[in-house]
Every structure is written in C-alpha cells, then in structure tokens.
Amino acid sequence: MKTKVKEYRLRRNLTQQQLADLVQVSARTIISLEKEKYKPSLFLAYKLALLFDTSIEELCCMEENMKDEEKKYENLQ
After folding, report:
1. Residue 70 maps to which CATH number?
2. Among 18, 44, 59, 64, whose CB has the most other CB atoms within 10 angstroms?
3. HTH cro/C1-type domain spans which residues (predicted)?
C-alpha cells in the first residue's frame, strides 16, 4: 500500500525510531510502511494523520490505492 509516511516524516526531520515512538509502534512498522510492505490499521493511520496534520486519505494515498485495487479486480474478470 502506497503512503506518504516517509515524505511527511522527512518534512518533520524525524527518524523512523522517533516517529515510531510518537505513535507507539516499532521502528520496523514504520520501515515496513515506508517500503509499502504493510497496511496500517485504521487506528495507526488516524494517529499518523493527526500527528502530521493531514487526512488519512491524503497520507495513505487512498485515491491512488483504490485505483490500483480496482485494476487488480478488472484483470480477474
């Protein structure tokens, strides 16, 4: 899942560990999010969006991810 977590983290000059501490997850979770290997829970997405003063939709690239997901299902038909 594409996100803008890394972009927002770098704007705030935070390390992955610092961000992890702020939202009470492991640094590995942040690393996985940034590598698009992990889909955040709604609760984690909400905490990150609040921290970065943005919406979940913006932070998690919801429009783009939704289009990508729809393409997967189009190919199955």
Report:
1. 1.10.260.40
2. 59
3. 5-59
